[in-house]
Amino acid sequence: MATSADDHWRRYYAAVEGRPPRPTLLRALAAFEREGVAPGLAVDLGAGTGRDSLELLRRGWRVLAIDGEAEALRTLAARAGAAALETRCARFETLGPLPACRLVNASFSLPFCPPAAFPRLWDAIREALEPGGRFAGQLLGPDDDWAADPAVTSVSAEGLESLLKGYDVELREEERRDGQSAKGRPKRWHLHQLVLRRETTSGCSSGTRQPS
Question: Quick check: 4 and 173 in contact, CB under 8 A?
Answer without folding.
Answer: no
